[in-house]
Every structure is written in structure tokens, then in C-alpha cells.
Design brief:
Elements lengths: L10 E2 L19 E2 L2 E2 L10 E12 L2 E12 L3 E5 L6 H8 L9 E9 L2 E2 L7 H7 E4 L10 H11 L5 H14 L3 H4 L12 H14 L4 E5 L7 H14 L4 E5 L3 H7 L2 E6 L2 E7 H6 L4 H7 L5
Parallel strand pairs: 1-7, 6-11, 6-12, 9-10, 10-11
Antiparallel strand pairs: 2-3, 4-5, 4-7, 7-8, 12-13
The structure holds adenosine-5'-diphosphate and magnesium ion.
């Protein structure tokens, strides 16, 4: 492997050439990959919104992701679990190409969004990030009013009409289960909100640009149990409208909120499947040890 120059980001395809068009094979059952039939692709997901295919990622000479393949079904919650440093955030950031912003990153394999590679040279990355929003571990409201935090994204994407912005701010705050708590102080600073409220504001901000997918990176790790329960309830409501991918190292949380779970360890996908199966009848010994709390 050659080390890339700073800022350079190149695409690697193991064995050269493009990935075969796996999407064309339809049903999702026993999809052929270059590694043979991939057990990590679950047969009961017929029409995934996103397909991660043999994804690899290097930070300089350090390989953080190794040949990861799994499916992300539409309007479900998919959890990425695993011990600290196993590559969960790295994988999540690949989905809306946030790793593009990191110097020296090289990526191989592919991620298909509605059948199209997100790494397609023709694809508009800003448009991709509008369709795939993100909520981070630490809530990061702008030092502006509650209203302005939510209106920021829509404004950036060209909504200028006040009536439309008012409507979006209200519907997004309602969507994030925050409206009742803040409707009388929309023009107060967002920084005056509690931690849990700030995180729900960040969710409202993500919703306001009307994405299809929302990525959550440990959204509750800085919150108390009451605030955490609110966010978990909220996620359950959100999945009727959005496809959700959540990184968590809290096993109970993954078991409570998600429909599908991917267990990562040392940059590899150990096991993937319906959450109930991963937590009750895992196929791999490492998964069992991890979900039983024997390591990590
Ligand atoms: N920006 C970065 N530059 C270099 N290495 C990184 C960067 N981000 C993460 N890594 C490395 O990639 C590996 C996976 O990290 P990460 O995706 O943050 O794991 P997790 O979210 O599971 O804790 C770790 O070895 C980490 O040190
Ligand atoms: Mg992380």
C-alpha cells in the first residue's frame, strides 16, 4: 500500500475495477460477493435503502475498516455496536462521506444508496449530506437562538420565506419532541437548554432539512437516564419517517431501540442480523461474549 499525500483521497478497489453490480440481483438472498456468499447480508431484508459492500478504510497506513458488508433497511433502526476503537464512528461517517474531510483517508469497496454508489464522481456530496443527516455524540447547538438553530439548515438550502421557515421550525421541533418545552422561548439562546434538550434540538436541526436517513453517533452518551429515555422514545417515533443508523456502546440501548444490529470488532464486522437474534441467538462466539458483557 502506498501512503497517500496529505489531503489526497483515492478510491481503492481490491482486485481492481469496479464492484460488480450486486444491486441488480434483487432479492437480497445469498448475494454473491467477491468473498462468496456473504453471511453478513441478511436474507429477510428485501429492499435495503443502503448497501455497504466490502468497505475498507485506511487512516494513512492504519487500516480501520476491513471488508465490511451489510444492509441498512429503510425506515428501521440499525445499531452499530462494539467496543471503543472498533471502527463504529468511522463506518458511520462513511455513510454520508464525512471521512472525505479527513486528510490521508483512503476508502475501498462501496456504499450504495438507492442502488447508486455514494462515491460516484458525479454525485453531489452536499446533496448527499442533505439526504443523510447526522447527530453527534456531544450536542453542538450553534450559539444562536433555538429558532435560528433549526432554521439554519433550511435557509442554507434555499428556504427564505418566513412563513415556510416558521412552519419548518415548528414541525421539526414537534418531530424532535421539544416543541412544548420551547415554544414560548424560541428566540432565547439554545445554549440555555439542558443537555437532553440540546440533543433534541440537534435532532430537530437534522429533521429540518428533511433527510431520508439520520445517523446518530452515541447520541445519549452524555445524557442522564431520563433524557436518554426521551431520546430512545423519540427514535422509535422517528423511524416511521426516517431510516436510522445509531452507534452505541450501550448494549441495552441497542437491544431496546434497534431492529437490526451489526457487531464490529477490531474494524471487522463479526455478525449482523435482526437485533433479537444477535442478542438471543448469536452465531459467533465473540458476539455472544460481547452481548453478555464478557468483554468490551
Ligand atoms: N481522524 C482519525 N485519524 C486517524 N485515525 C483515526 C481517526 N478517527 C479514528 N481513527 C482510528 O480508527 C480506529 C477506529 O476509531 P473509531 O471509528 O473512532 O472507533 P469507535 O467509534 O468504535 O470507538 C481507531 O483505531 C482510531 O484511533
Ligand atoms: Mg465512536
Amino acid at each position: 500500500m502506498t501512503t497517500p499525500r496529505p489531503g489526497e483521497r483515492e478510491r481503492l478497489f481490491q482486485g481492481g475495477g469496479r464492484m460488480p453490480d450486486l444491486h441488480a440481483s434483487g432479492s437480497g438472498v445469498g448475494l454473491p460477493t467477491r468473498h462468496g456468499v456473504d453471511p453478513a447480508i441478511d436474507s429477510d431484508i428485501a429492499n435495503p435503502l443502503l448497501r455497504v459492500e466490502a468497505l475498507e478504510l485506511w487512516y494513512g497506513s492504519n487500516q480501520a475498516l476491513h471488508g465490511i458488508s451489510f444492509l441498512i433497511p429503510e425506515k428501521k433502526i440499525t445499531a452499530l455496536i462494539g467496543p471503543s476503537g472498533c471502527g463504529k464512528s468511522t463506518l458511520l461517517r462513511c455513510i454520508n462521506r464525512l471521512n472525505d474531510l479527513v486528510d490521508g483517508v483512503r476508502i475501498g469497496g462501496d456504499i450504495l444508496f438507492e442502488g447508486r454508489s455514494i462515491y460516484d464522481a458525479e454525485l453531489d456530496v452536499n446533496q448527499l449530506r442533505r439526504r443523510i443527516g447526522m447527530v453527534f455524540q456531544k450536542s453542538n447547538p450553534f450559539p444562536k437562538s433555538i429558532y435560528e438553530n433549526v432554521a439554519y439548515g433550511p435557509r442554507l438550502h434555499g428556504t427564505t420565506q418566513k412563513a415556510r421557515l416558521d412552519e419548518l421550525v415548528e414541525s421539526s421541533l414537534r418531530g424532535a419532541a421539544l416543541w412544548e418545552e420551547v415554544k414560548d422561548r424560541l428566540h432565547d439562546s439554545a445554549l440555555g437548554l439542558s443537555g437532553g434538550q440540546q440533543q433534541r434540538l440537534c435532532i430537530a436541526r437534522a429533521i429540518a432539512i428533511e433527510p431520508e436517513v439520520i445517523l446518530f453517533d452515541e447520541p445519549c452518551s452524555a445524557l442522564d437516564p431520563v433524557a436518554t429515555a426521551k431520546i430512545e422514545d423519540l427514535m422509535y417515533d422517528l423511524k416511521s419517517r426516517f431510516t436510522i443508523v445509531i452507534v452505541t456502546h450501550n448494549m441495552q440501548q441497542a437491544a431496546r431501540v434497534s431492529d437490526y444490529t451489526a457487531f464490529l470488532y477490531l474494524g471487522r464486522l463479526v455478525e449482523y442480523g435482526p437485533t433479537t437474534r444477535i442478542f438471543t441467538k448469536p452465531e459467533k462466539r465473540e458476539t455472544e461474549d460481547y452481548v453478555m458483557g464478557r468483554f468490551g
